[in-house]
Amino acid sequence: MKREKFGSRLGFILISAGCAIGLGNVWRFPYITGKYGGAAFVLIYLLFLVLLGLPIMVMEFAVGRGSQASIALSFDRLEPLGTKWHWYKWFGIGGNYLLMMFYTTIGGWLLLYTGKMAIGEFKGLDADGVTGVFTSLLGQPVTMTICMILVVVLCFGIVCMGLQKGVEQITKKMMILLFVLMIILAVRSVTLPGAEKGLEFYLLPDFKKAAEAGLKEVIFAAMGQAFFTLSLGIGAIAIFGSYIGKERTLTGEAVCVTVLDTLVALIAGFIIFPACFAFNVQPDSGPSLIFITLPNIFNAMSAGRIWGTIFFLCMFFAACSTIIAVFENLIAFVMDLTDCSRTKAVVGNLIAIIVLSLPCIFGFNIWSGFMLLGAGSSIQDLEDFIVSNNLLPIGSLIYLLFCTSRYGWGWDKFQKEANAGSGIKFPGWARFYVSYILPLIVLFIFVQGYWSKFVG
């Protein structure tokens, strides 16, 4: 079966960026930026984004383009005879399924909240009332299941239309609209009375604040955010490398994707920090920021119903961009492995994702007693922990070793593939760093994640 290709370079960059751009850009980045010193943390984060995330992204792209296959066959085609690198494909694709087992549920929440905000359901509610809306939702498995199914059917419907006509064309429009809407929201937020305090915190580095938070903690948080924000290690990025030609170098393309991903995170800060400071609200972590804190802020804003609707529409687009990209990887995996049609791969995966997403939903209500990670944890926390703290760092380490070791694909073949075409070249002098130092950093992130979770 002839491999599909992107219709344009812009489509490749926006879709790859859409895979990386997710809810973590919006609710995790502002939270840890606020926790670890504001602008000082942002500078450290940007440094590690270049040192950690960028090289691994180039390697994932190179494995995809060099093999012209998804993770289902990429290692099989590139590995030396007799080696077992291809065993990782089962863990990598498992990470894609695990990610969708809870990401689709959150996508359903965002779809529902877009509607709730649009019809004015939050108008007149106090802080306890807004909290009660989210708490009530978690106790409604039927409602959450319906919303999840709508998101799954919508995104698989787009994927079923094909790479160019479906994934590329719709994701391009979605990403462009996402950027436009976020800029509009950012402009509104920074013009709020009292927003200047939030801008000062966000834009003026104060390394004393970073020192107060603990330099070690700040550095690890910046490393972790830079590492996880690009969705590296599970082949979700590699698949798009298999869809592009060799007209451009992969380092240049990875830089474009990284810049777009970072831009969304930075714009999110311009939305959230000025608004929070304007209304004397501290940014909270995770779902409480999106589904509790911000609806309260929109209630206090003039025309807050409109701004709130635009915000949740942005968040829905951000979630869908990731879901569509990962769905494309799932069906490419099945198509590469079985040589079946796109339609059959979509139908099979659609049913599988709906069924596999149910434990996350039930974990908030009828299975709420299942708390493997400790009191107060949920099935969603467990799924997120397996992906974020295990499969992403381990997978990234696999890609690093595969592309640099003589027992894998090897440095020379990787560099030849990465540097094919015009654009920024992957420098030869970086070989020692990516072969020996970067794997140790990734290993450190993996170990530190466990230490922080269960010891520290």
Describe this protein's structure.
The chain has a single domain, classed as Amino acid/polyamine transporter I. With 456 residues, the protein is mainly α. Helix content is 75%, strand content 0%. Helix 2 crosses helix 13. It contains 19 helices and no strands.
Radius of gyration: 21 Å
Written as H for each helix and E for each strand, in order along the chain, the element string is: HHHHHHHHHHHHHHHHHHH
Please tell me the total number of domains. 1
Mean pLDDT: 90
Pick out the low-confidence regions.
none
The helix content is over 70%
Main β-sheet description: none
Shape: globular
Question: In CATH, what is the class?
Answer: Mainly Alpha
Tell me how many strands there are. Answer: 0
- Quickly give the CATH architecture: Up-down Bundle
Question: Topology of this protein?
Answer:
Blueprint: H1 9-20, H2 23-35, H3 39-67, H4 74-78, H5 88-118, H6 127-138, H7 141-160, H8 163-190, H9 195-203, H10 207-213, H11 215-228, H12 238-241, H13 250-278, H14 287-300, H15 304-338, H16 342-362, H17 379-404, H18 411-418, H19 431-454
